[in-house]
Amino acid sequence: xxxxxxxxxxSITPSGAEAKPKSEGRCHRLVRSLxxxxxxxxxxxxxxxxxxxxxxxxxxxxxPNVSLAFLLLLVINVSALYVGHGYNQE
Length: 90
What we know:
Largest sheet: none
Strand content: under 5%
Order of helices and strands: HHH
Number of helices: 3
Helix content: 55-70%
Oligomer: single chain
């Protein structure tokens, strides 16, 4: 005799290892939804940040604090260029 269930397998919720792809899908959707705004922000930060470098360069890099600020801004600018390089590309 066969034991037929009135419920189909699709109505049973997955548990354990079978539930992982659903949570990974949420994470992937979250990353995809944040990618465009992050690229937008990084692109425009990379465009505008060099204007902050100009006063530091005009003041001179002899002061260690000014040199440190310049180097930190340069690292942020390069990072923003890396993150924002794909903005508005199909």
